[in-house]
Amino acid sequence: MATAAINTVYPYSRDQRFFTRMAIGMAVFVVFAFGQWALRGMASPSTAPVWVHLHGVAMLSWLGMFVLQNQLALTGNIALHRKLGWVSLALVLFIAGLGMFTGRMAIELHRVPPFFSNAYFLALTHIGTALFAAMVIAAIAMRRETQWHRRLMMGAMILILEPAIGRLVPAPILGPVLTPVVEGAFQLFAVGIIAMHDLRETGTVHPATRFSALAVVVLFGVIMGLAVFPPFVSLAEGIAAAG
Length: 243
What we know:
By secondary structure, the chain is mainly α. It has one domain (15-242). 80% of the residues lie in helices and 0% in strands. The chain contains ten helices and no strands. It has helices at 2-6, 16-39, 50-75, 78-108, 118-141, 146-159, 162-166, 171-202, 207-227, 230-242. The relative contact order is 0.13.
């Protein structure tokens, strides 16, 4: 019965409103987190390198595209949704490359938050960004499987909630170990909201939702492991020394 429930095919429009609201909610959350950070004087736009501003614009563009794509699915404009999907892919690849560059330059210019080690920040900005891009690519590859497609896209978005969550939790108090644990817990909570929706719709959690939860856990484990892996630590410190 569980297998049958997982494979149940139902019109995507039946519950697309949930995914659209989820997309809007996450976008608002990210904007709020970064907005309050700036209003508290924790950011210095005038001294930030140009690529940091470019990264911010690219991420805002992604948030807008993410919400728009869900809204188009809700209103039934699938033709435009599909066309913009290829634009989204190009944007994601640009974000991935720029995110890695920004992370590396933050280490080289000694702009890493003091409660993170260079190795942790290098892993976070490279592995996290790469996994985000990989999940988006997987979602696009499975675009004909709507239930997989939209859940993988949601999972990709949840993976990059970390910077926003990090601007709301008291990282200096929690420290370098508890901070990522709390951030990961928030991300798993977001996946849990989708899992509860799955249970209401089909009586079981969709495999793509399970995969998203696994991606959060794997990302956390890889980043924490690399942060203390001697060769990776040496690589990060070498980048810092080069600056």
